[in-house]
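Quick one, T. Sequence first:
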Amino acid sequence: MIGQAKRLYELNEMFEPQFSSSNSGGIIAFTSGKGGTGKTFLSLNIAFALAELNKKVLVVDLDLNFANLNVMLNIVPGKSINHFIENQNSLAEIIYEYSSNLHFLFGDSGKLDNAEIGDSFIYGFMKQLRNLSQKYDYVFIDTASGANKVTISLLGLTDEIIFVTTSEPTAVMDAFVIAKLLAYMGIKNTKKVIVNRSDKSEGEIAFNNLSAAVKHFLNEEMKYLGNVDFDKDVSTSILNQEPFLLDCLQSNTANQITSLGNKIANFKHVVNNSQ
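Structure tokens:
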């Protein structure tokens, strides 16, 4: 897996002008070392918050066989990323327009006959996605949890990686493992952290532990975006299959999610002004 991903990263370096950042917010990957951290929930709702701020956002569900973004929205998409994998459609042809500012590329679930995913797919996918990103302020990729070869390879071709973890030691350790694999490949993307289902103190402790390990063993820096509290209404929104921010705008958790969106927007503004 590492050998394949490393070759892909080197290929990206050769074609760097095609993958250079534009005036868009770039391609931001949400990833986690283990399932159950709330990665999909946060990528969806932060995108929703940015859309409410009149930013145009495309969210991509890249869990190719356990996709659930469409389930969280109670949507049965007519076409999914598998139509791209099978060379039936371009990415532009399978975009689902949820609202004027919020669009999706949905994945699929439960397929036993998926085509083999290799370097050519990953490079072709990212090339088309990079072209699409010119039409958006932000493109979010919701990756599969863990360290499969597609996820690790794609992370190396994004502009920024947001690690979603909880304060549980196993979740923090699994996030470190992903960071270690990326460091081994020489990937220096900006790495940020959200600690979910944790109060302010728990979030800071979890981030400090992760950041210290990354600094000590990998000689890299991570940036802390913040924490999101545990909220029983999150489960209600998932059961209702609708964005949490749709009905809970006044809650503390909604304010935290909106704040995360603002931090991402402000980071983009700072980067563009420094160029």
